[in-house]
């Protein structure tokens, strides 16, 4: 039997399967077959056949209410892809560290959590910031998370916060939804976010979202608040923005960083 191909030369069934996975991801939780059919425009028999295959493979699961959600088998793929992305981006992070003299980080948003996928530590100071690669935190309490959420629709931010809650990491962590949404609007206008001891006391962080990344991504510079003064922030923020822009350009061309 001939394999149907899409207009771009790809395999149509494979393309549709990945589109369904992305639509399930966009729901933030689960969806029914009829909802997937309505959002995708695909016929119900096609939806049913693709979902049944994805369930068999473990990439989709059927809940007890007969609705569908992303399966656990995707976790391994996502985590490996994120770590590889971090390795790929390390040369740009190293250049940023050389320029500003503080530690640089790269993080992505996975399953409502910020995951740190790369870090290059500064060797210029004896006191340095270390964030374990693979560490997971809720986005409302981190500079990188706030930079990502600042580009979201406010209703999507509310939905995420309803799922995660807003626990306090320190006395400076935002814990009120409406105040936090106003804060995100200020970040969007400014072009970068600041973590003002919101995740860890005595630590300040400057973060910028990477535009056009396939999943929400942000790059940051962190250090002791005694060194990351307001004057230092004004000097470092443009460098972080340039790095985010270069990462975006590299992602668009799919070329390795040199």
Automatic annotation (TrEMBL):
Domain IclR-ED: from-to ranges: 73-253
Stretches assigned to the HTH iclR-type domain: 11-72
One Pfam family per UniProt: IclR_C
Gene3D superfamilies documented for this protein: 3.30.450.40, Winged helix-like DNA-binding domain superfamily/Winged helix DNA-binding domain
Protein name: Glycerol operon regulatory protein
Role according to the record: May be an activator protein for the gylABX operon.
Residue stretches in coiled coil: none
GO biological process terms held by the UniProt record: glycerol metabolic process; negative regulation of DNA-templated transcription
Lineage: Bacteria, Bacillati, Actinomycetota, Actinomycetes, Pseudonocardiales
GO molecular function, one term: DNA binding
Top-rank lineage group of the source organism: Bacteria
Keywords carried by this UniProt record: DNA-binding, Glycerol metabolism, Transcription, Transcription regulation
């Amino acid at each position: 039997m001939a394999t149907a191909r899409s207009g771009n030369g790809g395999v149509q069934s494979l393309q549709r399967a990945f589109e369904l996975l992305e639509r399930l991801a966009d729901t933030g939780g689960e969806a029914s077959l009829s909802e997937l059919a309505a959002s995708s425009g695909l016929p119900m028999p096609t939806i049913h056949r693709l979902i049944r295959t994805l369930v068999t493979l473990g990439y989709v699961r059927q809940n007890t209410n007969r609705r569908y959600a992303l399966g656990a088998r995707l976790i391994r793929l996502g985590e490996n892809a994120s770590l590889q992305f971090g390795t790929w981006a390390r040369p740009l992070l190293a250049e940023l560290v050389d320029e500003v003299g503080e530690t640089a980080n790269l993080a992505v948003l996975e399953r409502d959590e910020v995951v740190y996928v790369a870090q290059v530590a500064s060797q210029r100071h004896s006191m340095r910031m270390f964030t374990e690669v693979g560490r997971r935190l809720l986005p409302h309490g981190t500079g990188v998370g706030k930079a990502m959420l600042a580009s979201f629709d406010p209703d999507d931010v509310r939905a995420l916060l309803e799922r995660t809650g807003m626990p306090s990491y320190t006395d400076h962590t935002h814990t009120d939804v409406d105040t936090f949404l106003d804060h995100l609007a200020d970040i969007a206008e400014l072009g970068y976010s600041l973590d003002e001891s919101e995740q860890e006391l005595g630590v300040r962080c400057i973060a910028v979202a990477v535009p056009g990344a396939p999943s929400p991504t942000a790059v940051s510079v962190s250090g002791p608040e005694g060194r990351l003064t307001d004057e230092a922030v004004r000097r470092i923020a443009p460098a972080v923005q340039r790095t985010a822009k270069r990462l975006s350009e590299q992602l668009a061309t799919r070329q390795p960083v040199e």
